[in-house]
From TrEMBL:
This is Ferredoxin. The keyword Cytoplasm does not apply. Residues 31-60 form the 4Fe-4S ferredoxin-type domain. InterPro entries: 4Fe4S_Fe-S-bd, 4Fe4S_Fe_S_CS, 7Fe_ferredoxin, RnfB_subfamily. It comes from Cytobacillus horneckiae. Ferredoxins are iron-sulfur proteins that transfer electrons in a wide variety of metabolic reactions. Its cofactor is [3Fe-4S] cluster; [4Fe-4S] cluster. Keywords: 4Fe-4S, Electron transport, Iron, Iron-sulfur, Metal-binding, Transport.
Amino acid sequence: MAFVITSPCIDEQAADCLDVCPVDCIEKGEDQYLIDPSICIDCGACETACPVEAIFHEDELQEEEQSFLEKAKKYYHL
């Protein structure tokens, strides 16, 4: 998994990331947007487009946001 959408998305859900993703790997989950790691090409376009800075590379996740990595894996059955 390259990028992970974290907690600020739950309150915002601006969806700017959808418009810039060249491979359509982002979809709306129950309470936030999620990135499909099997489709993501690690381009970073979503990270820079997010108005609330909710998207981070997996290697840069803060400890308190690690649960969002697991949430995405569960959502995509990985």
